[in-house]
């Protein structure tokens, strides 16, 4: 789980994932989704070094433990690699077969969505949730490489995204060697593991990313968080 953002766009004095949402930090909601899933073993939380005390506090107050904290890098790409390297020995040993990558700033993701993404990735290699958006029709075709229904519309991609673990780790190591910086996990896999199919899974309108201040207001009043 990626919690390495700075909160700049939201205008808060701290990373948005530590701001309160319905009485607990955004991060606590995001972690709760995955902590309770029987299909999920290890949970690795990637944070900025200065945020480590805040992250440890959230874990102590809002989880039953077992979350592994790793310090990320300057970019999303580096932070994902840091998280994957934490799992590398377990991936190499075959103890971790697939990895879900999630933005901690998406606290309304449901277990149902995560389960369907994970199942699709295990079956096919990779999976990404997305919403077809008519209003993005003039934008760059980011969703063009996804396998699935292909109406003449583009996809607004969400997380969690999931991939089989070994090709994912290999792709991120190769990307690091090339200095590649992607916008999400799928963009790295499309570039460095083009043979891995990426299955489109229907996303969830409620699964918003907290980016701007008004997103927190929307999340406060969204449908009930379905995980706890
Ligand atoms: C991956 C993502 O959630 C897809 O919508 C989004 O691109 C993440 O953006 P961030 O700026 O890295 O938080």
From TrEMBL:
GO molecular function: 2-C-methyl-D-erythritol 4-phosphate cytidylyltransferase activity
InterPro entries: IspD/TarI, IspD/TarI_cytidylyltransf_bact, ISPD_synthase_CS, Nucleotide-diphossugar_trans
Signal sequence, renumbered to the chain: none
Key word Transport present: no
Keyword Nucleotidyltransferase on entry: yes
Keywords, comma-separated and alphabetical: Nucleotidyltransferase, Transferase
Pfam families recorded: IspD
Protein's name according to its UniProt entry: 2-C-methyl-D-erythritol 4-phosphate cytidylyltransferase
Upper lineage: Bacteria, Bacillati, Actinomycetota, Actinomycetes, Pseudonocardiales
